Amino acid sequence: MTLKPLVQAALLLSAVAASAAMAAPQVEVLHYWTSGGEAKSIAELKKMMEAKGVAWKDFAVAGGAGENATTALKARVIAGSAPTAAQIKGPSIQEWGQEGVLANIDAAATEGKWESLLPSVVTKVMKYQGHYVAVPVNVHRVNWLWVNPAVLAKAGAKAPTNFDEFFAAADKIKAAGMVAVAHGGQPWQDATVFESVVLGVGGAAFYDKALVKLDQAALTSPTMVKSFETLGKIKTYIDKDAAGRDWNLATAMVINGKAGMQFMGDWAKGEFTAAGKVPGKDFLCLPAPGTEKSYTFNIDSLAMFKVKSAEEQKAQLTLANAVMSPEFQEVFNLNKGSIPVRSGVSRAKFDSCAIRSMDDMAASSKAGTLEPSMAHGMAIDSAKAGAIQDVIAKFMNSSMTPQAAVQALAKAAKTK
Ligand code: GAL
Asked: Keyword set for this entry (predicted)?
């Protein structure tokens, strides 16, 4: 009689143990894809993993360009509970590799034949000490200008191709009582506009010297002064409520006709398409003024963290292979506004903006005008990028002169 509750408890325990053993393997993925278009995109990966019998634990940290995600990730890694994977890009992958916390996923790369599907500029970034530690997701183009053609028509303005035309259009939009430039006053958004301006004012070779090689002479040159002058002028077309505004809310202003134009990477297209808008009709994707022949790229990737069990490891490799699959590359990028990073994905379903991105990337690669985005962590290490971003934000939020800005920029570039 007295044994009965014990037996019941034991039965219960073994049932719990059995269900734990049978529980689906799981991956926990840290990302910051929380806007309308972004959330739709990452939901596709969750669906795909669940279809493969792997449970998805979402570790979403809101904040454009991962503003808050890195802090959250560091806290988890220090606490010894890193997620399975995290959206980490560019040179930062090497920084995390040096911490000794990333997992070797060569097995997935071999199985998926990544070497034959990815350009070597991409594989180099995904490896730490010769071994794959990250899987690339997509290619975003940063140097875009998003335009509402109905706003242009209402204002009697023309779609701009260079800065003279841009300011002419901005004047007309402003005079017609609408916001000319939709923007959110956050440091990474300021940096996004800044780098497109540098590219437009100075061209790809100057951009490379200044923002990739951090050449002191280029950073303090008259061309850089002119870039800040241009940025200062753009500032005068931004509405007074821009401080702290999220990028997708700025995009929404263009979508609903409150504003005419926005400098932003093509994750903005994800917002337009999620709102049912059609490129060429409801919105235009134009290369940022003066940047038609160049292309600043931003490659999203998931870096993999060391996991404990063989089962977790297996789920991690499944995740890596799912990301590189043509099915994922197609559906994710259709929603995200980016283009596939690997070869062998059909173009058939992609819209005119994506096709233009694909063609312009190939052309700029040939012409030597394909450049890594500084603002999106592709070009320089995070300490230098952070210091440079601070200077740009200070310029945007104060009466700092272009001359003072270039001096501060050159100093920031020396950050160790
Ligand atoms: C970029 C990132 C994109 C997009 C954007 C806004 O840095 O690469 O995937 O999420 O920030 O958050």
From this structure: Signal, Transport
